[in-house]
Amino acid sequence: MWDADLLGYDMGASHPLTPLRLDLTMRLARESGVLDEVSLVRPTPVDETLLAGIHDHAYLAAVRAASEPDAEVRPELIARFGLGTVDNPIFPGMHQASALIAGGSVAGAREIIEGRADRAVHIAGGLHHAMAGRAAGFCVYNDCVAAITWLLEQGLERVAYLDVDVHHGDGVQAAFHDDPRVLTVSVHQHPTTLWPGTGSPDEVGGPGAEGRTVNLALPPGTDDAGWQRAFHAVVPSVLAAFEPQLLVTQCGVDTHREDPLADLALTVDGHRAIYRTLRDLARAHAGGRWLALGGGGYSPYRVVPRSWTHLLAVVLDRDLRPETATPAGWQAHVAELAPDVPVPATMSDDLRGDGDGAGSFPAWDGGVSHPVDRAVSAVRRAVFPLYGLDPHDRRD
């Protein structure tokens, strides 16, 4: 899903969520040959009825009013709707730009449901913090919720949402907290150390949907190997038990060790490994059907373009080797934009390993001596019994 109009979601030159990261990703993917002979689907704004079903009427009216060229920030916009803050400044065309992003995620879902593709990817999507009546965390409309809601309206009975952003996928969890048809899994930095402060292992879902909320909260400093160790000790077992008909993933890359807004320590190689794992999980547990969305990522020159070019490549079964050189033209363009930033020469952060960042990570052995293992143990104790799984059995 792509159109240059998606770059219109622009909160200002100094805002961390710069549309430049999308432009540089698409440039890198094109120049690397990842998008050769690929037909891009141009999204249209999300259907107004669908939008009104996931966001409050008063909030939608406020967003539209704040999108006008002469709109001013008023106290009630900030206090009631979260609009006009440092995180979510208002800007002309905000409603249109946000609706287009949501439309892109729904369009990707439609491509899959209508049989034109098994997988779809929308890197401009993944705005997972927006609540029904409030903007939050750089997110105005929640395109993840829009896509999942649309899928449910088409008759799907089990949709799994897997969020690997460094921040908790709170907006999606809130939307489906009481809905047993939707499994939300969020793998994020521990909420006591990072905004938004939610996503503890004991958040497991509402009445009638117990176990449909899974939160794997990792300690600051977790690297590729620790991330993979924790993920594989929890997520595949839960997905296998839930048996989703389609997998939706939010693929934020602010888990990277260079990201300025968080404290995990993954690499571009680790991100590549995550995407390959997500592809395997979609094949194993969702009939191969996979909708991949973007998300956070605030290193726009060195990290986001390479990580999401790997995402595009994996979705398209055109996996790039880590040692692949970044194209000279792309390097020159980045150097011109940011003369003081070291331009990555390859699609890897660490060519010493096997290209998957984590290498041959040790499987979880039931121990709790390491903070990562304690995180694993906490979520297994909270969720596994709700699926009839033994939280202490390493085979689960």
Tell me what you see in this structure:
This protein is of the alpha/beta class. It has a single domain (4-43, 103-387), classed as 3-Layer(aba) Sandwich (Arginase, Chain A). Helix content is 37%, strand content 8%. The chain has helices spanning 20-31, 48-54, 57-66, 75-81, 94-113, 143-153, 170-175, 224-242, 268-285, 304-315, 328-337, 371-383, and strands spanning 119-122, 159-163, 182-189, 213-218, 246-250, 290-293. It has a six-stranded parallel β-sheet with strand order 1-6-5-2-3-4, with helices on both faces. The radius of gyration is 20 Å and the shape is globular. The mean pLDDT is 96. Keywords: Acetoin catabolism. Pathway: Ketone degradation; acetoin degradation. This is Acetoin utilization protein AcuC. One of its GO terms (biological process) is epigenetic regulation of gene expression.
Keywords:
396 residues; alpha/beta; Arginase, Chain A; six-stranded parallel beta sheet; 6 strands; His_deacetylse_dom_sf
Entry summary:
With about 400 residues, the chain is an alpha/beta fold.
How would you summarize the topology of this molecule?
Layout: H1 20-31, H2 48-54, H3 57-66, H4 75-81, H5 94-113, E1 119-122, H6 143-153, E2 159-163, H7 170-175, E3 182-189, E4 213-218, H8 224-242, E5 246-250, H9 268-285, E6 290-293, H10 304-315, H11 328-337, H12 371-383
Parallel strand pairs: 1-6, 2-3, 2-5, 3-4, 5-6
InterPro entries: AcuC, HDACs, His_deacetylse_dom, His_deacetylse_dom_sf, Ureohydrolase_dom_sf
Protein name: Acetoin utilization protein AcuC
Keywords: Acetoin catabolism
